[in-house]
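Structure (tokenized):
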């Protein structure tokens, strides 16, 4: 949404393919459900406190119906509730009111799916509620009901670039059970797998594209003596086929080799909760991993994939054991296991995904670096095909840093409009130059504490009229100020006013550390020194980046045609703006 204060955060609006309807209250009793039109149908609804919504529909013997709810997928995280999303629960009843199916999530996905083969003609009732009977206006849902195509699993979960891979599809109401996927040299890391039947598209499954060659797991390989020998740097496609299954692999390595052993399963839609163990030829455990966090996967709340980074102590044969932590298994417990040389790399996330920049002004964004394979180097940021008048400033993520604020500036001549920006990071990773797009994202809080970087489709920039005043700070070229414990930092701002007012500017700092305080709370129209104080307790080597903010009160003149002589308080407004990002390093 475009507002007078800029662009809002994005929310999803889903465009469906089947007829839609909206819930009509009262429909909160099983004996008085809302009657739905002919299937297929998509129901839009909302759960308020203690609410249960019931819907009745006609079904025919032999139909295999799919009831698929979208709730958390629409609004992934709620900051002020536990669990930190709308946890939908669906129940299906027959004509006599007997419960015939129930689901509170689909495998590890909080959004429930019910698959039901109708035993006889009749009227059936579906209910939806929150798992613990919470409810409020943002507990919204969309339920698709009908003989809909639904992919339950695919195998393999990925393939190599520049190849043609035959993929097996297993699911409900599918028009095909095999498809060939061609992966070009420029294919993205993840391809969507989807089928269409009678003009209706199925759900999407993920297919990973990798530059590495891959092979298939060969059974039997569930014991140390049966370990499947693999060569260096490849991916194995396999499954933990039955509960309690273990898959063993072996490889040769030299002393000092740095190896990465990594499972891709949960990130690709598999329910596998992987556990990796690295052993030597004497079956001594050298490294173990259960859950390895991947911050690029902002929608996963359980990071169930495993990763081991390990330097081999001697030349010889090493063994890898892969299993499910919960001792579960089945055809859907597929994985892609990477065994190879440690590969330094990174991904980028830019927060927030929508920004407002005043002409002749700046806005602050944060770029997060998600580092892999021991990569610690600096990352240089730039804008690809930047619109005229828009530029990136102080655009470097320093060595060993996981995030940095960057400044996006609009010149006085920049055109007032909404545009998209494409920010890219470039770094030297182990003798190769790597380019990665800074994917726009929202920093979302879940359940009062947990934070997730949830990706958005594009980075939107709105260039607007100038702020009432433009303030420039005299900062070092790299933006980093050095200070000793117990000292003051003095900034000499340059002010350029764009409105006629006698008011000055009130100053604040956003989330400063305990050792940093703002001594100057106000500067007048002519400016003046801005002083920050560093506590004597500050530890040398400490660093911080804080936002220096300003706000100014602007009052309309009685000669202004919009002046309100009766409600005079409406003639004043407070304009808040960010002045700059101030980075400080404590020195000895």
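Design, position by position:
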């Amino acid at each position: 949404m475009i507002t007078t204060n800029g662009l809002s955060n994005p929310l999803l609006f889903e465009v469906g393919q089947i007829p839609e309807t909206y819930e009509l209250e009262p429909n909160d009793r099983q004996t008085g459900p809302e009657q739905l039109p002919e299937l297929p149908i998509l129901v839009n609804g909302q759960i308020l406190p203690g609410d249960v919504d019931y819907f009745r529909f006609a079904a025919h013997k032999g139909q295999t119906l799919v009831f698929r709810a979208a709730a958390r997928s629409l609004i992934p995280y709620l900051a002020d509730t536990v669990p930190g999303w709308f946890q939908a629960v669906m129940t299906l009843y027959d004509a006599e009111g007997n419960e015939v199916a129930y689901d509170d999530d689909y495998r590890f996905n909080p959004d429930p799916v019910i698959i039901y083969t109708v035993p006889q003609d009749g009227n059936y009732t579906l209910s939806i509620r929150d798992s613990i009977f919470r409810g409020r206006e943002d507990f919204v849902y969309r339920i698709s009901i009908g003989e809909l195509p639904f992919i339950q699993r695919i195998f393999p979960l990925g393939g190599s670039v520049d190849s043609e891979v035959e993929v097996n599809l297993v699911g409900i109401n599918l028009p095909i059970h095999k498809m060939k996927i061609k992966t070009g040299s420029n294919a993205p890391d993840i391809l969507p797998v989807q089928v269409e039947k009678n003009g209706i598209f199925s759900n999407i499954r993920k297919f990973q594209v990798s530059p590495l060659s891959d092979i298939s797991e060969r059974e039997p390989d569930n014991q140390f003596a049966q370990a499947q020998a693999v060569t260096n740097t490849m991916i194995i496609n396999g499954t933990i086929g039955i509960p309690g299954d273990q898959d063993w692999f072996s490889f040769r390595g030299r002393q000092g080799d740095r190896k990465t052993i990594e499972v891709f399963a949960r990130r690709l839609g598999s329910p596998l909760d992987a556990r990796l163990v690295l052993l030597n030829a004497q079956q001594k455990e050298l490294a173990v991993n259960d859950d390895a966090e991947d911050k690029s996967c902002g929608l996963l709340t359980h990071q169930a994939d495993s990763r081991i980074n390990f330097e081999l102590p001697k030349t010889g044969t090493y063994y890898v054991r892969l299993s499910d932590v919960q001792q579960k298994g089945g055809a859907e417990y597929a994985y892609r296991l990477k065994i190879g040389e440690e590969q330094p790399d990174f991904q980028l996330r830019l927060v927030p995904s929508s920004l407002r920049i005043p002409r002749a002004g700046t806005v602050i964004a944060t770029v997060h670096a998600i580092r892999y394979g021991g990569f610690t180097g600096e990352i240089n940021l730039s804008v690809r095909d930047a619109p005229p008048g828009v530029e990136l400033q102080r655009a470097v993520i320093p060595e060993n840093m996981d995030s940095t604020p960057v400044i996006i500036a609009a010149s006085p001549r920049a055109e007032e409009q909404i545009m998209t920006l494409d920010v890219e990071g470039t770094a030297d990773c182990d003798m190769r130059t790597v380019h990665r797009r800074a994917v726009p994202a929202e920093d979302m809080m879940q359940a009062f504490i947990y934070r997730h970087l949830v990706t958005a489709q594009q980075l939107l920039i709105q260039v607007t009229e100038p702020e009432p005043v433009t303030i420039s700070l005299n900062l070092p070229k790299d933006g980093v100020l050095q200070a000793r414990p117990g000292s003051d930092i003095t900034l000499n701002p340059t002010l350029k006013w764009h409105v006629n007012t006698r008011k000055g500017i009130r100053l604040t700092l956003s989330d400063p550390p305990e050792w940093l305080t703002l001594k100057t709370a106000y500067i007048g129209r002519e400016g003046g020194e801005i002083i920050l104080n560093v506590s004597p307790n500050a530890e040398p080597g400490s660093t911080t980046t804080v936002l220096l903010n300003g706000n100014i009160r602007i009052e309309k003149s009685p000669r202004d045609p919009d002046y309100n002589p009766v409600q005079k308080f409406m003639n004043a407004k407070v304009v808040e703006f960010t002045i700059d990002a101030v980075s400080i390093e404590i020195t000895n």
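Reviewer-requested clarification: The chain has five domains: 19-146, 150-210, 214-341, 345-464, 469-586. The chain has a mean pLDDT of 93.
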